[in-house]
Design brief:
- The protein has 336 residues and is an all-alpha fold.
- It contains 14 helices and two strands, in the order βαβααααααααααααα.
- It has one domain.
- Helix 4 packs across helix 11, helix 5 crosses helix 10 and helix 10 crosses helix 11.
- It is globular, with a radius of gyration of 21 Å.
- The protein starts with a strand and ends in an 11-residue tail after the last helix.
């Protein structure tokens, strides 16, 4: 019989198997059978581990891509800030209660900053952009985030900006533009600034998360940020949208899905990827969101996709794959 250590799972590693306490046996040296040297990680094993981590991190933007469908079909109309707050705050408080870990020292203000950048400010600016711009324009502005992260990574993390990364970032923006932008789209200066500001806010959040690491298990770290970001949104909801209306069963179900899967799980996977993979490469995974949203619109809502949109989806996914193949494939150790 074996049992798994919770500490290993908290740190995002695979389960560590320990001999059952009820059975006696000879102590084995690290590495396996008696007398054998410790196992070394081969390049192939490292590449497989990186691929597995990348795929699990990609689940986050894929889940975020379902937000549009859930919001339009299940949630109250004209309440995007309420939806954002109810996604973040309950999930954050639940994770804090379950993990029973609070910030200490500098991590009070660091958690507040990360929560504001990754959740509160990002959602608020996204709301402004969504209301003042067509959805295609807002999505295209959000697609510049990989380029933002590449620049901030060079400034704050000392990461070299590769030509391939810049080309992939430009291709990603072009692909999303082809996928979601319409010829009749109008531009609004405030909306454009808000869209770019949202991309910069989350991009800076990604880079600072990679720089600062985390001092606690992943779920506690995620709970801190969701709670801080949700609390920041509460006064905005009351000021802009007023007192929330009563929610029907469909809205409660939609919010439960967004809170548990689209926020708590998604952000936990996202932060785990940010701390272990190069920041610029992680940011390219965000290109999955508009692709998933468009695919669900076609499959579930019957929205037609023309040839240019399909080409845009292929271009965006190609940029994503190219960014993952570039540079070192090694994962980074947790910083704190």
């Amino acid at each position: 019989m074996v049992r798994m250590t919770g500490q290993a799972l908290d740190r995002g590693a695979g389960p560590v198997l320990l001999p059952d306490a009820g059975r006696a046996g000879p102590a084995l040296p690290e590495g396996g059978a008696a007398g054998t040297p410790p196992a070394r990680t081969t390049p192939t094993a490292a590449a497989r581990a990186t691929l597995a981590l990348t795929l699990t991190t990609a689940v986050a933007p894929a889940l975020w891509g379902t937000t549009y469908l859930v919001t339009t079909e299940l949630l109250p109309e004209g309440r995007p800030l309420l939806a954002a707050t109810l996604r973040a705050l309950p999930a954050g408080l639940l994770l804090v209660l379950l993990t029973r870990r609070l910030p200490r020292g500098d991590w009070w203000w660091r958690a507040a900053v990360l929560g504001a950048l990754n959740i509160g400010v990002f959602f608020a600016l996204l709301f402004v952009a969504a209301y003042r711009l067509p959805g295609g324009v807002a999505a295209t502005l959000g697609a510049v985030q990989p380029l933002v992260v590449a620049g901030l990574g060079a400034l704050l993390l000392g990461q070299r900006v590769r030509v391939g990364t810049l080309l992939a970032g430009i291709a990603g923006v072009a692909g999303v533009a082809l996928l979601v932008l319409r010829a009749t789209a109008r531009l609004d200066a405030v909306g454009v600034l808000a869209g770019l500001g949202g991309a910069v806010a989350m991009g800076l959040g990604v880079v600072l998360t990679a720089r600062w690491g985390r001092p606690v298990p992943l779920l506690a770290f995620t709970g801190w940020q969701l709670t801080a970001g949700g609390l920041l949104l509460v006064p905005l909801v009351l000021a802009v949208e007023g007192v929330p209306p009563a929610l029907d069963g469909a809205a409660v179900g939609g919010l439960a899905y967004l809170g548990v899967l689209g926020t708590a799980l998604a952000y936990a996977l996202w932060f785990r990827g940010v701390e272990r993979l190069p920041a610029a490469r992680v940011s390219f995974l965000g290109l999955l969101s508009p692709v998933v949203a468009a695919a669900l619109g076609w499959v579930v809502l019957g929205q037609a996709l023309n040839g240019w949109q399909l080409a845009g989806a292929v271009l965006a996914l190609g940029a994503l794959v190219a960014a993952q193949r570039g540079g070192s494939g090694a994962t980074r150790r947790r910083a704190g």
